[in-house]
Amino acid sequence: MRTYTYTRIFFCTILLCVLQACSSLLGLPSSPEKSILGENTVYTTELKNLPLPHEKIVIGVYKFRDQTGQYKPSENGNNWSTAVPQGTTTILIKALEDSKWFIPIERENIANLLNERQIIRSTRQEYLKDADKNSQSLPPLLYAGILLEGGVISYDSNIMTGGLGARYFGIGASTQYRQDRITIYLRAVSTLNGEILKTVYTSKTILSTSINGSFFRYIDTERLLETEVGLTQNEPVQLAVTEAIEKAVKSLIVEGIRDKIWGKSVENPANYQAVIDEYDREQKENIGRVIGNKFPGDYRQKFAVFGNVEAQKVKDDYVNPKMNIGGKLGFKYFLNPNFNLEFNSNFFTLENENIIKRNFFVPEINIEYLLFPKYKFSPYLYGGAGALYSGIKPRYKGQFGGGFEYMLAKDIGLRASSQYDVGFKDNWEGLVNGKRKDQALRFALGLNFYIGNK
């Protein structure tokens, strides 16, 4: 008994050592870390590398707040923590400093600044009565020619979620993801007349991912082995807000140069032409973009002709059905962007090894539904009816299937699909036996060629 106990202790010790090693291998934290400098985003470097102005601009920021009122999503009860960091004014001021285009002045806590200056004056008047009055006066405060206003105006949770997983014989793995999104508006206001000189708008997604794996197996009738591993990673909201604000500051600077609102700060516009051209290209690319970083367009036209190569296997009343290769040619007419009417003819081989082999010519008609007609990648579903001809009385059937299409070029789509055929009668091979109708399963790979105009 004691030996069995020692064996279990030894086994548990070895298992813990293995788990610790795996933890280090996966990069999981296993000890406290010292404080570090804050991370930079991709736009921090871009801001610092902008061409310098001829003269810096004095700029004031009174408040740049979270205007969403959004609380952190919670699965268990209420969560009164805000989803967006409340120090966005400080993040904006840091971005203005990094750009080297502006001289930010203190306006968020102007009351504290004025109060401190008053204390300085009172102290000097009290203790430096005999000193020169000019030495007691404080220099005037800087005033801003431009104010920055705006804020975080939107926090959208779960704009995209999904996952993938599989489990077989006690071994399983899965992955899940979720995307949130924040939106920033930033505007420059002239203090001379209150005119809004420029407004820019940026957004940033926040990604959360989770990967899990498990193993569950009975070693024998009384022993069970179960292991699990998992890793979850959440993109920090603060970094996402910082990146969106830095992008907004860069956009404000470049659009200000292009639209000539910075005055004497831009002495020679030719020095900034490369930055302006790059920004214009980005704006053109952004015209057709929608949420999810997708670019809808008229990839598919009014008509299409297609050809498929198919692998076919029958399920009939004989044993040992055999897989065969066939083909399909057809024509599609789009009733609207989502629905099209399809006519096709295909070559189908029914074969049971060493029993029967018969070739069929099969015309079909289908109604097809395309899920995302405006995107390059789209799943689709279809269904219809057809007939099998082979020099004998026609056999009739119904079919349904689905697959996906990816647009390789403007008018060429690559398609992969599977189709299930069901006979109306149990007579494809000439034998009626049992209650189940003759059936067939097909897998296809082909090309769609789109013609005509929308």
Automatic annotation (TrEMBL):
Matches recorded under Pfam families: CsgG
Keyword Signal: yes
UniProt keyword Membrane, yes or no: yes
SUPFAM superfamilies, per database record: OMPA-like
Signal peptide: 1-23
UniProt keyword terms in alphabetical order: Cell membrane, Lipoprotein, Membrane, Palmitate, Signal
InterPro entries the UniProt entry points to: Curli_assmbl/transp-comp_CsgG (IPR005534), OMP/PagP_B-barrel (IPR011250)
Database matches in PANTHER family: CURLI PRODUCTION ASSEMBLY/TRANSPORT COMPONENT CSGG (PTHR41164), CURLI PRODUCTION ASSEMBLY_TRANSPORT COMPONENT CSGG (PTHR41164:SF1)
Name this protein carries in UniProt: Curli production assembly/transport component CsgG
Originating species: Chryseobacterium geocarposphaerae
Lineage: Bacteria, Pseudomonadati, Bacteroidota, Flavobacteriia, Flavobacteriales
